[in-house]
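Support request from a user on the community tier.

User writes: "When I paste my structure tokens into the form, the page sometimes reloads and wipes my input. The last time it worked, I copied everything first. Here is what I submitted, just in case something in the input itself triggers the reload:"
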């Protein structure tokens, strides 16, 4: 008999899958996703660590920096739906490879942008960050598609947590390096090194990322194990080059679903918290807590480690609950709600001047954010197989609308108050909204079923 979990089914393994020794290529694949997402997020965060030196050298105001920080988000949001459409038409491997190359190239070019100042500098940096954002747009929808293709339901939370935790791991791995580069060689060096690193990763991507049914290192036992657990193992098969791509009319169905809309709104707020961390948090440490940039780069790694561990913990606990018979819906909501409640302790930083206390509080807060940051796991649980890339792109559109609004709003709060106290209240309010969305709006987490579009309306 199969086990019913919410409205999702985890099928029993067949005799062949139980007796043959299966390969574990799926875990290599998810660790490839983890490492490329480390580079992805480091490229996003380079601008924040370079920000104080850049602002000083180029004569930029807090509002100028807010707009430069937001440039990535404008493009990232604008290109989400085209990116998802391309993923569903041409597959994850090909589109993601182009994405890696171009975001790395434009990051590299940002290191050459110090030849102008004032308004011209704002324009040049805005354009380059816009191009980085546009190039990175397919990355997280592709991560989600790949996890849905490679992992059964009972491992999906852990797999998604691994790649999602890279948003914190990038700070652990790269913030000290970038802080040292900026301190020793100037802000240009950080962009140059990160751009070259992304380009150098492309051969690894080509070797390890394939459709599960086509992967040379997957045996029949592993394929059967994934299939019987609900993995969409042939998502990118079936003559993809001849496909027309997903019907955009399905967007209306996604946006009018209470469950999907609640997930999307919650992801907007989750990303607002994360985007504070990768843009304004190092500036907070330098300006509000009077640390030098080298120390800020080191200190920023502490809450990042906690966020990284929290992300893994949230996915592991969620999958463990499923294996013990808890419904998918409850198993996902427990870490999300509890993590966001813990995240709200960030506001206590307004009431202490102790550097060690600030680091401890921020570490707890980002531990909670990591535990609760399961939006991509929920997307893999709910996205229709026909439009997995497009659904992920809608999620990421909502998510990264906050990457536009958050840095600009924080810039205006700082200019009006000359303090980060209001900024932390602004960030914590987003954690509260995530809790409300999952408790009162999302309802049961289950695979969303598309309604067929009549042939007379099937114009793409």
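"...and here is what came back when it finally went through:"
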């Amino acid at each position: 008999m199969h086990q019913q979990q919410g409205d999702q089914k985890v099928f029993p393994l067949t005799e062949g899958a139980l007796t043959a020794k299966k390969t574990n290529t799926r875990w290599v694949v998810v660790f490839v996703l983890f490492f490329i997402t480390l580079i992805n997020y480091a490229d996003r965060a380079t601008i924040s660590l370079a920000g104080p030196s850049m602002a000083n050298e180029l004569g930029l105001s807090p509002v100028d920096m807010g707009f430069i920080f937001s440039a990535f988000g404008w493009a990232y949001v604008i290109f989400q739906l085209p990116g998802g459409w391309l993923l569903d038409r041409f597959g994850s491997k090909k589109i993601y490879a182009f994405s890696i190359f171009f975001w790395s190239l434009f990051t590299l070019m940002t290191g050459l942008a110090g030849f102008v100042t004032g308004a011209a500098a704002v324009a040049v940096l805005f354009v380059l960050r816009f191009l980085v954002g546009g190039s990175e747009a397919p990355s997280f929808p592709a991560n989600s598609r790949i996890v849905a293709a490679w992992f059964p339901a009972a491992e999906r939370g852990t797999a998604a947590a691994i790649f999602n935790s890279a948003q914190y791991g990038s700070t652990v791995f790269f913030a000290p390096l970038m802080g040292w580069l900026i301190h020793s060689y100037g802000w240009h060096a950080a962009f140059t090194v990160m751009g070259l690193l992304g380009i150098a990763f492309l051969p690894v991507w080509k070797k390890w990322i394939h459709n599960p049914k086509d992967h040379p290192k997957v045996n029949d036992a592993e394929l059967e194990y994934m299939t019987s657990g609900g993995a969409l193992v042939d998502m990118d098969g079936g003559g993809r080059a001849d496909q027309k791509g997903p019907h955009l009319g399905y967007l209306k169905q996604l946006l009018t679903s209470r469950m999907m809309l609640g997930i999307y709104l919650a992801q907007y707020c989750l990303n607002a918290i994360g985007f504070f961390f990768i843009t304004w948090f190092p500036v907070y440490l330098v300006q509000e807590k009077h640390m030098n940039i080298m120390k800020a780069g080191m200190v920023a790694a502490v809450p990042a480690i906690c966020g990284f561990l929290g992300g893994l913990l949230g996915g592991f606990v969620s999958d463990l609950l499923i294996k013990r018979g808890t419904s998918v819906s409850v198993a996902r909501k427990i870490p999300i709600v509890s993590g966001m409640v813990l995240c709200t302790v960030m506001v206590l930083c307004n009431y202490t001047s102790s550097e060690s206390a600030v680091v401890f509080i921020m570490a707890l807060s980002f531990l909670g954010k990591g535990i609760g940051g399961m939006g991509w796991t929920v997307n893999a649980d709910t996205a229709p197989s026909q439009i997995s890339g497009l659904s992920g792109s809608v999620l990421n559109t909502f998510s990264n609308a906050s990457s536009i609004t958050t840095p600009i709003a924080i810039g205006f709060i700082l200019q009006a108050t000359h303090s980060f106290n209001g900024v932390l209240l602004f960030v914590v309010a987003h954690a509260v909204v995530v809790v409300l969305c999952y408790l009162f709006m999302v309802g049961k987490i289950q695979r969303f079923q598309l309604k067929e579009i009549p042939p007379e309306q099937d114009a793409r």
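Agent notes: The reload is a front-end session timeout and is unrelated to the input. The beta strands are 3-5, 8-10. The mean pLDDT is 85. Escalated to web team.
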